[in-house]
Design a protein that fits this description.
Blueprint (H helix, E strand, L loop, with lengths): L7 E10 L2 E11 L2 E6 L6 H8 L7 E6 L2 E2 L3 H9 L1 E4 L11 H11 L4 H14 L15 H13 L5 E5 L7 H14 L4 E5 L3 H7 L2 E6 L2 E6 L1 H5 L11 H15 L1
Parallel strand pairs: 3-8, 3-9, 6-7, 7-8
Antiparallel strand pairs: 1-2, 1-4, 4-5, 9-10
Helix pairs in contact: 3-4, 3-5, 4-5
The structure holds adenosine-5'-triphosphate.
């Protein structure tokens, strides 16, 4: 039976580093909307996101993004044009102003020159940096730099957005604003983000995948994950109790 292709289709992904296997036969599918990735330290969230952002070629298995097979050079190029990525450690040019940096990133993503400035202005506004758009990056706070990283990821209006721990360094107000932004973007794009904050997942994710033991241990809605918790499970919220119960059960196996 044929199926409708999804924006992200990963099958039997094996990934890792020399002498350090990380993902061992991972399957993952994501459609339009927001998918949150949870997992303990070292579970492989960043490794998976780097693979989806096509900065780390798979060791084996198949990765299809936006209908393109990324092992094919042409397919990779087509997919990259429609992809926005905020890495965990985001590199930037400290002497660039916020607007110039985001505009430069628009140019890198092949946004037509006549549209690049407006796209950058809009992205900077969406992350709440309009008031400091002419300030050099080296003079921004850590949270502002993080927001600039979010702006560069969204500037080309990508169909697929990958954010690695995007809420790190954001103050509570900015975290709430970012969740609203994710919600808005998720109406038309596919968003995959990692976090250690289950509140982020509860607030904005349509689907949650838990990585553990080299694979996707769990995929479902946040409500379904919360339903795995018991009253005596560890955790301060329904979702946290469900998550902890899942990890404890996996550890016991
Ligand atoms: N460049 C690298 N070379 C060798 N090992 C690496 C490299 N990057 C990550 N690792 C190892 O791969 C494993 C998975 O790391 P990864 O950063 O993907 O996990 P994570 O789930 O994102 O962790 P965290 O929650 O701490 O950010 C870890 O054991 C890590 O030490």
């Amino acid at each position: 039976m044929s199926h409708e292709p999804q924006p992200v289709e990963v099958q039997s992904l094996v990934q890792g580093y020399p002498g350090r296997p990380v993902l061992n036969g991972l399957d993952l599918t994501a459609g339009t909307g927001v998918l949150g990735l949870l997992g303990p330290n070292g579970a492989g969230k960043t490794t998976l996101l780097k693979t989806l952002a096509s900065t780390l070629p798979p060791r084996s298995g198949s990765v299809r993004l936006l209908g393109q097979d990324v092992s094919d050079r042409h397919g990779l190029r087509v997919a990259r044009r429609q992809l926005g990525y905020l890495p965990q450690e985001f590199g930037y040019f400290p002497s660039f102003s916020v607007l110039d940096f985001v505009r430069y990133c628009a140019w890198l993503r092949e946004v037509p020159a006549r549209l690049a400035r407006d796209a950058a202005v809009q992205a900077v506004e969406r992350v709440g940096l309009a008031a400091v758009r002419d300030r050099k990056l080296k003079h921004l706070s850590g949270g502002m730099v993080q927001r600039c990283g979010i702006a560069q990821a969204i500037v080309a209006d990508p169909a697929l957005l990958i954010f690695d721990e995007p809420t790190v360094g954001l103050d509570p107000q900015q975290r709430l604003d970012f969740r609203e932004l994710l919600h808005d973007l998720g109406q038309s794009a596919t968003i995959i983000f990692s976090t250690h904050l289950v509140e982020d997942i509860a607030a904005v994710a349509d689907t949650v995948t838990v990585l553990s033991g080299g694979t996707a241990l769990y995929t479902g809605t946040p409500e379904e994950l919360g339903g795995l918790g018991r009253p005596d499970s560890r955790g301060d919220s329904c979702l946290e109790r469900g998550y902890m119960e899942l990890l404890t059960g996996a550890a016991a196996c």
